[in-house]
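fold description:
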Amino acid sequence: MTNNGQSSVINDRHGAGLYTDGKLSITNNGDGTALVVSPTRNRTVKAEPLLKAPRVERFPSIDAAKPIESCGTVVTLTDGLLLPPSGALRRG
């Protein structure tokens, strides 16, 4: 899937896929036909199946993402996260 914020392309790796840009939508069914939807009309047209998208290879490991051994964890929260602004739950 590719999305640049203005248009989107999806390839299902089996010949079918979708293109859309907010005004135009093309659905390739992968069987030699595609549905084209525009603001003025919808129609089915002849279309070659999409090429298979290549598989993404394995990404190299990232040292920063490796687990680390820890003997404890400290979590610090401010009282604003625990108590409502009205202070209705305060004791004392």
Remarks:
- Residues 49 and 89 are 63 Å apart (CA to CA).
- Residues 79-82 form the longest helix (4 residues).
- The chain has a mean pLDDT of 80.
- The first strand starts at residue 2 and ends at 3.
